[in-house]
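Notes from hallway chat w/ T.B., transcribed later so I don't forget. T.B. wanted the structure written out for a chain they're using in a teaching module, and asked if we could keep both sequence and structure tokens in one place. Agreed to drop them here.
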Amino acid sequence: MDKILFIVNPTAGGGKTQELVPTIEQIMDDTKIEYNIVLTEKPKDAISIAKKGIIKGYETLVAVGGDGTVNEVARGILESGNGKLGILPSGTGNDMARTLNIDFDPVKAIDTIINGNKKNIDVGFVNDRLFLNIASIGFDAETVKNTESVKKKIRSNIAYIIGVLITLFKFKDKKIQLEIDDYSVDKDISLIAVGNGRYYGGGLKILPMAIPDDGNFYICIVNKVAKIKLFFLFPTIFKGKHIKLKKHVETFKAKKIKVVTKDTAYLNVDGEIYDVEKETLFTMGDRKLPVYVNY
């Protein structure tokens, strides 16, 4: 079995991830597999830790945290040109783990890393930023932005609900120019989500049709709707039922997507929020990422 490096983000999951260290040690000591555990100290730390781990001979790099940690460890592997990704989900969202059917129980998650299947999944880029799961513009991105502010005062799941309500009150639909492969159109939208994964926002099944290793992006567009309709449409995303609402929701499969925004907007990339540049280009990477999965 490969040497395994566990890269732990101690702040993930509201600080509870650090408590997993003794559990990892107990499980791994029984396996007799060579391993090490390193804690990150600051944002982007997991990228450099993964690179240094690969230089030291660790073949499997395990992201212990949420989707942001997974993204960083993946970057380290891809920039090094070597290594395989393992995921021990312990963040707030854990949406990539959901798509890959990785159990949230640490014993079962580590078993997947040791005995599970390995898949080569797609790697997307939005402008120059790598993403594995989903990137989006519109209502959902603004909800994440507003929820970040709420979390400074309320550290619980209700923060996201409050974030949704604040966004409903403030949100303005986005005017965009859209190119999906050879299809081009101008339209007003509430949101557009592009990705390889099925879930975001901690379990919202925005792209239920997505396949993470088939070389395609999957796209969901919620067209401009009245705020009251958006309020009732949003809960249908939890089970992926929104894609049946053909009057308001469109889905596509493509290799390349370009979005030109005419309004102020945010870009949500694997749970990280950025200001939208005027032109946002989604492209599929040339390389795939080896990941231990449970399917």
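Follow-up for T.B.: The longest helix spans residues 67-80. Might be a good example for the class.
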